Each structure stands twice: as C-alpha cells, then as structure tokens.
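BUG: 3D viewer hangs when loading the predicted structure for this chain

Environment: internal workstation, default settings.
Expected: structure renders.
Actual: progress bar stalls at 90%.

Input used:
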Amino acid sequence: MKDTDGLYVSNGLHFRERLSRLSLSAAPKKPHTHAAGRFWIKEAAKEQFLPPPSNADFIPYNILHNNAIHQRQHSVDGQINYDLRILFTFWSCFLLRNFNLSMYAEFAQLAFADGFASFGMSCLLEYYSKALASETAMHERVAIGYLELVISEDRDGSRPAFTALKSAWRNGATNMKNRKRISDFMDADLKAELDQ
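Structure tokens produced before the viewer hung:
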C-alpha cells in the first residue's frame, strides 16, 4: 500500500492518510486552507512545504482516527474531544477533492449522531455547501445526504441546511450539474419551497 494523501496542521500535527484506492495524480498543487490556521497538503507535495515547524509532531491518520473514536465512545454526552474536532475538520476538506464513500458515510453518521447543534454537524453542513458549489460532480450519496439533512431540520427552527441550499439554488454561479443532481432527489414540496 502506497502513501497517497496526507495532511499537515500548522498548530503542530501532521497526519498521513493511507488509502491505496486514491491516486497520486489527484494531488493538489496548493495546500487547502481551513479555519484556525490548518492546511492540508497531499503527501506527494509535502516536500514543497518543508521544513515543518519545530513543534510539529507526526501522527498517522489511522492513529488519530482510532483515538478520536475511542475518546468519543468514552466521553460525556455533548463533549467533543480535540482529535474528533480535527477529524471532522479534515473530512470536511479532504472529501471535496478525494471522495471516499466509506469515509463520507462515517463522517455523516457521526455528525448526525451528535445532533444538529454539534461541531460535527457544522462541519458536515460546510462540506455539503462546498460540494454543491464545487466544479467537481457531487456524488449521488452526498446529494441524498444533504437532502436528508434539509428534510430532517425542524421547520420551526433556524434551518441552516435549508437556508444554505436555498441560497445555492438561487445563485446563478452554482454548478448546474450539481444543482441537477440534487434536484433529481427532491420532492415537489421542497422544490416549491426553494422557489418561493
């Protein structure tokens, strides 16, 4: 199995994703930036950004993932550990350019399990919004997951997923292929509500 993808976090953490089914040709030319000074770099391009800060530590993705899940299982309800925050943040960026169905399924399942007001759900919503706007074709499962989130929101609440979808729906710059993809799974009531 080859090292294909990695991530570097500027606050001192470095992770390596070992997924044999991702190709090195998908490596981005620039790091992906995210909130709190984090940026992701493909393993194949990491030499362009060396040397790492003197306080950097190397932590393989699988160890971070296992620690985050273990800590989640043993934490108090509503409490989110640091490793899980990093994992949610990583998934919300990584999956945009390197879609992996099993990784996405775990991301969505954990975010839904934590509830609508959770950090994981905010990362999932950010992912859905960026996936809809992306030039890359949205995976069918992502389109369905986004609509499941919209439909499951409390109609008397703030409905952030619906608000984001409605904004994208009215935005002429939204990728038309992704708009069609998500439209294919909508019922008539939701389409009418988006067009109001």
